[in-house]
Write a structure and sequence with these properties.
By secondary structure, this protein is of the alpha+beta class. The N and C termini lie far apart (62 Å). Helices cover 42% and strands 13% of the residues. The strands form 2 sheets. Strands 1-4-5-8 form a 4-stranded mixed β-sheet. The structure holds flavin-adenine dinucleotide. The site of flavin-adenine dinucleotide has 20 residues, from β1 and α12.
Length: 391
């Protein structure tokens, strides 16, 4: 039996045994059969196979409407799991991986701060060792689904006297622990997807550290590289995803203007090129953690989404100014936006070129790490973080 046949047989077994409408049970069985991430080791949600076999699981499960862990626990599945696989101890993996995949324990990412977004290595949140624990103080911001999360991926400064990349350590934080205060922020869509998170003498056991003390930047890069692919590497069916939305609008608003049709075809072709690029990236990826080329999909999808939804608003004319479902102020979406109106998707798409690293930062990564161009100016890279001037 080939690897592909083995995966196919296990998918059949999963579908014959479990009812997709019971998400927790279905995803638990998917994990136990090794179909969560086929490239993970056996017993850890995988089968130890090549990652490019994962579509043999994902496509048939999507076709029967099986629960999508990526929507239920996007940060856990997209970024937490690969980071855990690379750096967690056996005990941490035993405790954390399965409920992450079943979405019984949602995750959030605690990197960005008011003074550190693109320059995340410049962050200020401090973790100070106290016996078997670390005492954390500081403020994070833009923390998506922080109010729903059980666990947070925290990057904190443990040695301010080292240069900024060297004094960081990475932790898994219990979001329900005393001293962790999550406050929602409302976005222009009316939703409240992200939060600010305050740490006031919050205690994190050293057993929750990922990687060595001072090695946090290395661990964070694994998270960030996976984040870009989780955001930009999605492979919808041909004609699906963002382009499906504009096609709906085009049919409904009945434009037969050749110039509009020409623009529509232009965006359809762009979406198809991105889709094929992402398929190629998936098939050529032999290691679990993507490289800097993951920034291509992130950057192109962000700009494409914004342009396609903007074009859709033009097609809709005055209807684009209506917000039919109303502002669901403070509601926290943890859902596929495809089911919501194009107006909301237009507003939400404006965040695409900011979240997960801005388009400008993607340009820098691609320029430096893929094309080998001269680096950005970095005047604070080699001096102790404590001596860097900041406001
Ligand atoms: C919807 C959404 C969800 C998010 N979720 C999370 C989350 O869950 N967890 C988390 O930690 N963060 C999250 N973020 C934060 C996101 O990662 C940051 O907003 C992003 O990295 C930019 O940081 P900043 O907002 O501080 O902007 P800044 O870094 O201050 O950038 C401001 C502008 O300057 C440009 N710029 C900065 N440095 C350079 C440079 N070197 N070269 C060229 N241009 C540059 C930027 O491109 C941008 O246009 C989220 C953001 C959004 C919008």
């Amino acid at each position: 039996m080939t690897d592909a046949e083995r995966v196919g047989a296990l998918v059949d077994e999963l579908l014959s045994e479990c009812d997709p409408s019971n998400a927790t049970e279905f995803l638990g069985r998917q994990f136990d059969l090794g179909l969560a991430w086929v490239h993970f080791p056996e017993g850890r949600g995988g089968l130890g196979l090549e990652p490019n076999l994962q579509p043999l699981v994902d496509i048939p499960l999507a076709e029967v409407g099986a629960p999508a862990p990526m929507w239920l626990n996007p940060i856990g599945v997209g970024m937490g799991a690969p980071t855990l696989l690379a750096y967690a101890t056996a005990e941490q993996l035993d405790r954390l991986l399965r409920p992450l995949f079943t979405a019984e324990e949602p995750w959030c990412q605690l990197f960005s701060e008011p003074g550190a977004g693109s320059d995340v290595a410049g962050l200020s949140t401090r973790a100070v060792r106290d016996g078997d624990e670390w005492v954390v103080n500081g403020q994070k911001v833009w923390t998506s689904v922080g109010h729903l999360a059980r666990w947070g991926l925290l990057l904190a400064r443990t040695d301010p006297d080292l240069p900024k990349h060297k004094g960081l350590t990475y932790f898994v934080v219990d979001m329900h622990a005393p001293g962790v205060d999550v406050r929602p922020l409302i976005q222009m869509t009316g939703d409240s997807e992200f939060n600010e998170v305050y740490f006031t003498d919050a205690r994190v056991p050293d057993a929750n550290r990922l990687g060595a003390v001072g090695e946090g930047w290395k661990v964070a890069l694994t998270t960030l590289m996976n984040e870009r692919v989780a955001i930009g590497g999605i492979v919808p069916p041909r004609g699906g995803g963002v382009i499906d939305g504009v096609l709906h609008a085009w049919r409904r608003y009945g434009y037969d203007d050749p110039a509009v049709r020409d623009e529509l075809v232009h965006w359809w072709v762009q979406a198809e090129v991105l889709r094929l690029t992402n398929i190629r990236a998936l098939q050529t990826r032999t290691a679990g953690t993507p490289g800097p080329d993951g920034s291509i999909g992130k950057m192109i999808s962000a700009e494409l989404n914004k342009k396609v939804w903007s074009f859709t608003m033009n097609l809709m004319g005055m209807d684009a100014t209506l917000y039919p479902e109303g502002y669901r102020m403070g509601h926290a979406p943890q859902e596929d936006l495809q089911h919501r109106g194009p107006q909301l998707q237009f507003l939400r798409s404006l965040a695409n070129s900011i979240e997960g690293g801005t388009t400008e930062i993607m340009h820098n990564i691609l320029g430096e790490r893929v094309l080998g161009l001269p680096g950005d100016v970095r005047v604070d890279k080699d001096i102790p973080w404590s001596q860097v001037r900041r406001s």
